[in-house]
Design a protein that fits this description.
Layout lengths: L4 H13 L10 E5 L5 E6 L30 H7 L9 E6 L3 H10 L3 E6 L6 H12 L3 E4 L12
Parallel strand pairs: 3-4, 4-5
Antiparallel strand pairs: 1-2, 1-3
Helix pairs in contact: 3-4
Length: 154
């Protein structure tokens, strides 16, 4: 059995997400060019040089006591870590991009987003994200199934 390109690249996004130390939400992203070549991958985590153990992973509390002040999202990490331009590429992401990542996706020239979960659908941030992405002509495709990644150890 040969898996589809969508399942393959979403699987890579899921595999990347396993690198995240976030105890609540692990997100992965995989950027692919028009020839189905992987350009970059990313996951949600602290910025380079910032020790994961010295920063909060909490979701509630004062702004500086939560992860929201510090974490770089998977999409932005994939864009920033790309060794070349991502203009014209597609991005596979396990969770629909937030409004901040939407801005980076638009500015980077990515033309298509393939995603699985849209768990924040209807929230203000999600509405803002979709408005910008649609206005910018970004194609949005939600997979109709979940991609499973199975890891085994010997």
């Amino acid at each position: 059995m040969v898996i589809s390109w969508n399942d393959y690249f979403m699987g890579l996004a899921h595999l990347s997400a396993l690198r995240s130390k976030d105890p609540n939400t692990q997100v992965g992203a995989c950027i692919v060019d028009k020839e189905n070549r992987v350009v970059s991958i990313g996951y949600n985590g602290m910025p380079r040089g910032c020790d994961d153990k010295k920063y909060p992973w909490d979701r509630e509390g004062g702004f500086l006591d939560t992860k929201y002040a510090f974490v770089v999202h998977a999409e932005l990490n994939a864009i920033l870590n790309s060794p070349r331009s991502v203009d014209g590429c597609s991005i596979y992401v396990s969770l629909f991009p937030c409004n901040e990542c939407a801005k980076a996706i638009i500015q980077s020239g990515i033309k298509k987003i393939i995603y699985e979960s849209d768990k924040y659908d209807g929230t203000e941030g999600n509405i803002a994200s979709k408005k910008m992405l649609i206005d910018a002509g970004i194609e949005l495709i939600q997979l109709d199934h979940k991609v499973k990644v199975s890891l085994t150890t010997d």
